[in-house]
Design brief:
With about 625 residues, the protein is an alpha+beta fold. The chain folds into 4 domains: about 5-140, Galactose-binding domain-like (Jelly Rolls); about 140-245, Immunoglobulin-like (Sandwich), CATH 2.60.40; about 250-535, Alpha-Beta Barrel (TIM Barrel); about 540-615, Immunoglobulins (Immunoglobulin-like), CATH 2.60.40. It has 9 helices and 38 strands. Strands 20-21-22-23-24-25-26-28 form an 8-stranded parallel β-barrel, surrounded by 5 helices. Strands 2-1-3-8-5-6 form a 6-stranded antiparallel β-sheet, with no helix packed on it. A 4-stranded antiparallel β-sheet has the order 13-12-15-16, with no helix packed on it. A hairpin with a 3-residue loop joins strand 17 and strand 18. Helix 1 packs parallel to helix 2 (about 300-310), helix 3 runs parallel beside helix 5 (about 385-390) and helix 8 (about 475-495) packs parallel to helix 9. The radius of gyration is 26 Å and the shape is globular. The model has no long low-confidence stretch (mean pLDDT about 95). It comes from Halorhabdus tiamatea SARL4B. Its EC number is 3.2.1.25, 3.2.1.-. Keywords: Glycosidase, Hydrolase.
Length: about 625
């Protein structure tokens, strides 16, 4: 409905922007030519979209980063300050035959730009703009503006708490019809009911209704069951809106771990930055069942991909790094974030403050002096949890709450562990967690970085000094080191039965980074290593060291018992044994004598379809 868009960098604030020149751009999108700009103005023209006098119109913008002001034909329409929440503005009063829409987008002036306001995300991915959607919507005298639903499954049954926002252009005394039915061809019982709505002309109101579901078909994470979903419709006269959602329950505590639909679920996850829908499938191909949206809010398309794939989403508030923040602003944003995304069954957890302190600025090695330095820095660190806890209190009780993600030393709710990268060696994760077992329940990030290309020039957000301390060679050596750290730490965490473990990053955003995939999605060496270590059923050596006797442990994250045959090869010497492991448990199934001169050990299950190789 809108013609082509043009844009220009502008100074934020003041009257409607009027730059001297406008450059053609794609909207929605992030025009890279304006990377680094504090504010960018966007302009489009369109004809009056109303077909007759009974119609009305509004502009709908989604992903407006980060704060925005909007004008139509020189008249100020409104502003917006949460990019993950749709911006809807009525146009009628300012519409003409030919119309000019101007949207000024600017960087945030508070702490809630999250990772987009750090060096972790390249400037071209953080351009102020309209990232996800831009359209004109027409409607009659009554309009269902928005539809939200909160799924609940508990001892009282299964239900959706539904909210429909209604805009009245004329007085309304009517009923909204709510209906729900299983998505697509899935069988199941649908229902329909009506709720009263009253509103005066020009008023917006909210209708709330609870839909009870008999014999519910639950949504399950991948590996645990089907991703059953429901379509909810709210209809008022000829106007209607739908959404797709699912029923599930999610809980976490230290004694029972993470449970979905009251079923234990060890979570194996990866962090995503500036996430794209394709990243969800990439994570699933790694055998991950969770992604952590690190200090940013992905588009609805990413959440839809997660719902489709059966991948849980651990959602961060867009807040990262040291420093105070506005508590009331944080509380407001948490409420709006939940309202926007709570209908997605994949939404599992929300955290508030990421990396609030820096444990060490430079790398620390494995020697005694460096270990003492690390211990002293942990002892000296301080962090006030109260602001994050206050904001976290706004998170509904049916979501997992993780107020603070950070390094050892500040009692984080989820730990950021970097042995083998920021300090010590990868195997030091055992010593660290032996002394501080509380750090091993939820590990929100771990791993090491590597180059994505030989001699990279663009390394935004990559700690080159740490890398060069660890790696002396080029691309192959860099990726081999990352692979070794990720293999070791992932296995040690799984053997310790960590409830939730999240490798730092799925994909680089520059030509080097913490991702196991390069910028374009090309696998690094660590990609297959992580996929192997994340296999739901996997055999692991308790101590992969030459010259020792090591237990062989089979980890079974599935909800069913596993009977299989384990085979092994130690430098050409083979053996095998039958194994039986109960659902959701780890079992020591045999021991192996590892020769002092051993070079490789391979363990295989299911005729080699699941294997694990140690390079000694």
């Amino acid at each position: 409905m809108m013609n082509e868009w043009r844009a220009a960098p502008v100074e934020p604030g003041g009257d409607q922007p009027d730059p001297a020149t406008w450059e053609p751009v794609e909207v929605p999108g992030r025009p890279a030519e304006f990377a680094g700009s504090d504010a960018v103005a966007y302009r489009s023209t369109f004809e009056d979209p109303r077909a007759d006098s009974d119609e009305h119109a509004m502009v709908v913008l989604e992903g407006v980063y980060a704060h925005a002001r909007v004008w139509l034909n020189g008249a100020f329409l409104g502003e917006h300050d949460a990019y993950f929440e749709p911006l809807r503005l009525r146009l009628d009063g300012a519409l003409e035959g030919e119309n000019e829409l101007v949207v000024e987008c600017r960087r945030p002036d508070d702490r809630f730009g999250g990772s987009y306001e750090t060096s972790e995300v390249p400037d071209e991915l953080a351009v102020p703009g309209i990232w996800w959607k831009a359209e004109i919507e027409t409607y009659g005298d009554r309009h269902v503006l928005d539809l939200a639903a909160r799924p609940r499954v508990d001892d009282d049954g299964a239900r959706f708490a539904v909210r429909a926002s209604v805009l009245a252009e004329t007085d309304i005394d009517d009923r909204v019809t709510f209906s729900v039915k299983p998505e697509g061809s899935r069988r199941g019982r649908g229902m329909m009911d009506r709720a009263k709505v009253e509103a005066s002309a020009g008023e917006r109101t909210t209708v709330e209704y609870t839909i009870d579901i008999r014999d519910p078909a639950l949504w399950w994470p991948r590996g645990l069951g089907e991703q059953n979903r429901y379509v909810i419709r709210a209809k008022l006269g000829d106007d209607e809106r739908t959404l797709t959602t699912g029923l599930r329950s999610i809980t976490y505590d230290d004694s029972e771990g993470l449970r979905v639909n009251d079923t234990p679920m060890p979570a194996r996850g990866v962090g995503v930055l500036a996430a794209e829908p394709e990243d969800v499938e990439r994570a699933a191909e790694l055998n991950a069942n969770l992604v952590r949206a690190h200090a940013h809010v992905p588009s609805p398309a990413v959440y839809e991909a997660a719902d489709d794939a059966g991948v849980l989403v651990w959602q961060d508030l867009p807040l990262t790094g040291p420093g105070p923040f506005d508590i009331e602003r944080g509380r407001d944003l948490v409420g709006r974030l939940v309202s926007a995304y709570e209908h997605h069954p994949g939404l599992a957890a929300i955290s508030v403050h990421d990396d609030p302190v820096a444990l060490n600025k430079g790398p620390l090695g494995p020697g005694l002096l460096d270990r003492l330095r690390l211990r002293w820095r942990r002892f000296r660190m301080e962090y006030d949890h109260d602001p994050a806890e206050t904001v976290a209190a706004e998170i509904p009780e049916d979501l997992v709450t993780v107020p603070v993600v950070g390094p050892p030393g500040i009692d984080p709710n989820a730990s950021a562990l970097y042995p083998g990268w920021k300090y010590g060696e990868a195997a030091d994760v055992d010593r660290l967690l032996d002394r501080n077992p509380e750090l091993g329940s939820i590990v929100g990030e771990y791993g090491a970085g590597s180059l994505g290309v030989e001699n990279p020039s663009d390394v935004a957000g990559f700690d080159q000094s740490v890398h060069d301390y660890r790696v002396s060679g080029g691309l192959d050596d860099s990726q081999a080191y990352q692979r070794s750290v990720i293999e070791t730490v992932t296995e040690r965490l799984r053997l310790r039965e960590t409830d939730v473990l999240v490798a730092a990053a799925l994909r680089d955003l520059a030509n080097a980074g913490m991702g196991v995939l390069a910028r374009d999605g090309t696998p690094k060496q660590a990609r297959d290593a992580l996929a192997d270590a994340f296999e739901p059923v996997q055999a692991m050596l308790a101590d992969p060291s030459p010259g020792v006797e090591s237990d062989v442990v089979v980890c079974n994250d599935l909800p069913t018992d596993v009977s299989d045959r384990l085979t092994w090869d130690v430098d050409g010497e083979a053996g095998e044994t039958d194994v039986s492991v109960e659902a959701g448990t780890h079992e020591t199934v045999t021991t192996l004598e590892i020769p002092a001169d051993a070079e490789t050990i391979s363990l295989s299950l299911s005729d080699g379809s699941v294997s694990n190789t140690y390079r000694l």
